[in-house]
Amino acid sequence: MYQIEDLIAILSRLPGLGKKTASKLAYFFVNNKEYSGDFIKVLSYIKDNIKFCSDCGCFIINSDKCSICSSDSRNSKILCIVEEQKDMIAIEETGVFSGFYHILGGTINPLENRTPEKLRIKELLFRLNQKDFEEILVATNPTIEGDATFLYLQNLIKTTFQNIKISRIATGLPMGGVLEYADKHTLSKAIEQKQYT
Ligand SMILES: [Zn+2]
Q: Is residue 127 one of the residues assigned to a domain?
């Protein structure tokens, strides 16, 4: 059987939570049974029904495509490549990008055995073959891994799809900075001032 300590231990494994906050939350759950019930219900439903969008690869619940990929009011000529879903959310929140997205699921980093095969590159090539994108906007982070991933994609796309223009969001973001933490204004500027290669 479980004890409160088990709840604290499992909560403290959540990203960004220290033991103190985990313990505070554990006692909140214990003291608020109705809330705990709702929490379990929603979490369990999400756990059982989570899927990936067949196009961009973002998490979705109970459908095959996300609302962005199934929208017909977006600019179908431009595809923005991001590392993670949180980057897509950050860009979407700026409101300055109206095309579609493709989530890679990380970056290339041979030292950590993250090779291109582990990213959603096969899916990317499939989409580029199926659709008439005219431009790829690469929005990987301005980090060493983000740069390496950009160079890999640039080379791959240039050799396979000569008609597609490639751009990258401007380096207005601080070096080593992460998209999801950039303020809306900085990120908007970085998208507006994208650079063609
Ligand atoms: Zn999607």
A: yes
Q: How far is the CA of 103 from the centre of ligand 1 (A)?
A: 9
Q: How far is the CA of 153 from the centre of ligand 1 (A)?
A: 20
- Residue 54's CB is within 10 A of a number of other CB atoms, namely 14
66 domain-assigned? no
Q: Which residues surround ligand 1, an ion (CB under 5 A)?
A: 53, 55-56, 66, 69
87 with 31, same domain?
no
Does an H or E element contain 37, and which? helix 33-49
pTM, entire model: 0.79
Give residue-wise pLDDT tens across range 94-107.
999 999 999 999 99
Distance of CA 24 to the CA centre of its chain: 30
DSSP H helix total and E strand total for the chain? 7, 7
Residues 39-49 have pLDDT tens digits of: 999 999 999 99
Distance CA 142, CA 56 (A): 21
Angstrom CA distances, 191 to 3, 85, 93, 107, 169, stand at 49, 17, 12, 20, 5
**Ligand 1: centre distance to CA 59 (Å):** 8
Q: Output the CA 133–ligand 1 centroid distance in Å.
A: 15
